[in-house]
Amino acid sequence: MVFCEASIQYADYRENSGCHGGGMGIGRASALRLARDGAHVAVIDRDADAIVEVVDAIGAAGGHAFAAIADLLDTKAITDVFARIEADLGPVDVLVNNVGQSARERAKPFWEGDPEIWDFTLGISLRSTMVCTRQVINGMRERRLGRIINMSSESAFYGHELTIDYSAAKAGVLGFTRALAGALAPCQITVNAICPGLVRTRVMDQLPADHIQNMAAAIPMGYIGEPDDIAAAVSFFASEGSRFITGQSLLVNGGKWMI
C-alpha cells in the first residue's frame, strides 16, 4: 500500500510564515506514524532540508519513503510531483492533505483585509487540497480503493476577527470533504477531515511562556496537543478500521470545542 503525504513548508507569505508541512510539525509526525504502520510514504514539502530529515528518519527505522519538493500553489508542480510519486512508489492509496496557513502576522480585521492575502490563504488552505486530490482520485475510483484525509481546523467551527479568511478556507475543506465523500462512497473510497486545535509546533515555540500557559488553561484537558496526537487520528482514518466512516470531521482539541 502506498501512502502519500501531500503537504507544504511555506517560508513566506510569503516570508517567515512558519507554516509546517510534511517536513515539520503535524506533517512530519503523520509521515513517521504512517511509515511505522507499514506504509510506503511520499512526503511533499517545499523545505528541502526538512523533507530530507524526515525521509532519512523513516529509512533509518526500516521504512520506505520518497522525498518530493514542490510548491503546492503551483498546479503544474503538483501534477508533476504526483507523476513522480506514482512512478517511484506506484498508485496512491491514501492521500493526506496536510496543507494550510493563516495570514499570521499580516492578519487584519476583514474590513481592512488585503484580497491578495485572502487569495493566498484560500489557495494554500483549500485549493491545494482540491488540486492534490484531483491527482489521485481517478486511480482510486478505478481500483475502488482509497482513503483521503483532509486537514481542516477547529477554526472552521468558530471564528476570530483576524482569521476570517482562514476560517472560511478551513470550513471550505469540510464542505469539500463531505461533498466528495458522498460522491465517492459507491467506489468504497472514504473521505474524512481532521480538525486540530492547539498543537505544539515550531510556531508556538516563538510565543512567551505565560501566553502558552494561558492557552493551555483554556483547554478543558489542561494541556496543548502534540503533533503525535494528530498523527494518531491520521493513522486511524488511513486504516481498515475506519472503512465504514466517511464524510466526517474529527475535532482533536482536548475538548475546547465540541460538536
From TrEMBL:
The keyword Oxidoreductase applies. SUPFAM superfamilies: NAD(P)-binding Rossmann-fold domains. It comes from the Bacteria. GO terms for molecular function: oxidoreductase activity. GO terms for biological process: monocarboxylic acid metabolic process. It holds the Pfam family adh_short_C2. Keywords: Oxidoreductase, Plasmid. Signal peptide: none annotated. PANTHER family: 3-OXOACYL-(ACYL-CARRIER-PROTEIN) REDUCTASE, 3-OXOACYL-[ACYL-CARRIER-PROTEIN] REDUCTASE FABG. Belongs to the short-chain dehydrogenases/reductases (SDR) family. This is SDR family oxidoreductase. It comes from Sphingomonas paeninsulae.
